[in-house]
Amino acid sequence: MAAMAALAPSPSTATAVGLAAQRSSSSSRPTPAAATTTAAFGHTPSAQGKSRGSRSSSSSSSSSSSLEVSSCSSQRLVAGLGFQLSELLASSSSALSSSSSSPSSSLSSARRIPRRRSQGSAGAGGVSVVAASEPREVLIVNTNGGGHAVIGFHLAKALRSSGHGVTFLTVGEEASDKMKKPPFNRLAELREIGVATVWGDPSAVGAVVGSKQFDVVIDNNGKDMEAVQPVADWAKASGATQFLFVSSAGIYKTSDEPPHVEGDAVKESAGHAVVERYLASLFENWSSFRPQYITGSGNNKDCEEWFFDRIVRDRPVPIPGSGVQVTNIGFAPDMANMLALAVDKPEAASGIIFNCVSDRAVTFDGLVRLCAKAAGKEAKIVHYNPEAVGVEAKKAFPFRNMHFYAEPRAATEKLGWTPSGELGQILKERYQDYVASGRDKKDISFPIDDKIIEALKQPALAV
């Protein structure tokens, strides 16, 4: 099994490009957590504050056992556009040996690639600046199904383009049929840029990665303590100094004042919420990211495909209720970049919960029209009352039948994150992927749709 090389920028290279950097606490390596597991677990930490008057989240001091917002440290900034490191010196680091790795593990040696420009704020005179970060060794524990899988795929790419060493642990076995679906059938793309790909059981993560040491561990798999605690405990014991968790915006309680912002009330018994409290008690430097619906290249969970299936066949698209319900669909590469910024800026991200979402909302009817435009078709929309026509909305429609959207305020304020994706253009690209997959030609039946449309022939049931 090939060794994973650690990447470090050459001092001579930095000098050659004339970069002037000033060290600050945000770019230094975080110190190991001093808090113990038992000190705060079971205690509900204070939520990130926000003012409903100003509709923005507020900051307050944070501790290792609290969900309070920590104040941003000053960042080490490198001025000027157009500069990038021309080479990164690949030096031998402790490798994952075949004797201590999973039999299905496949490790690739890292290639030298240029550092990605992090998204940052504008400097004096409006000149953009770049946040510098020491190369770190990062382990991504990635789910083998569901919508979150694509986030980890794009995150591995983003971290490598920043010069970090990345090991990508996919839950399960390499020979699984799940690996035939995206994004797993594209893992060769990760190996080509120097990401080490391994497979195994997260509850035995130490046996999978062997003696490999990691600075950062990212759990993009677990939904509860049973799944996440073994990974978190191993990360703590092995000396990782930062832990990132991909949670869910679904843990927010229904609010009369949308959108959801960081600090809103959550369902305290929800698995993701329990995990967040545990991580706050265990790590000095940790963050949680709460996504909603996801789209983007490599996604394998029906989102826009549900709409395309009907639109390309000139069928009406049944929408529950009025169609003005608002939701949020995040672009996977943008969501991945948000997590990558947390690795680049560990102090700024420490102790913060981030809504990992787009900065724009969309209505159900609006989504139908955008999908139809992407396919070059006219939108045909019918509205219905699920109870009146005798169907369950959650079985008839892929989204929650309600206003459900959040805003990424913490990421904007703490990390300087800005999204790059525009939903209309993203859907055009996704439609091209849809056609390329041949799904537009498949024989698909729509029994629930047919029941709805037949019921709507009775005027009293139409919305």
UniProtKB/TrEMBL annotation:
Residues covered by the NAD-dependent epimerase/dehydratase domain: 146-355
Region (Disordered): 1-69, 94-128
GO molecular function annotations of the record: mRNA binding; poly(U) RNA binding; UDP-glucose 4-epimerase activity
One Pfam family from the record: Epimerase
GO terms classed as biological process: monosaccharide metabolic process; plastid translation; positive regulation of DNA-templated transcription; positive regulation of translation; rRNA processing
Gene Ontology CC annotations of this record: cytosol; plastid
Start-end of Low complexity biased regions: 1-40, 54-69, 94-111
Name the record gives this protein: NAD-dependent epimerase/dehydratase domain-containing protein
Source species: Chara braunii (Braun's stonewort)
Lineage start: Eukaryota, Viridiplantae, Streptophyta, Charophyceae, Charales
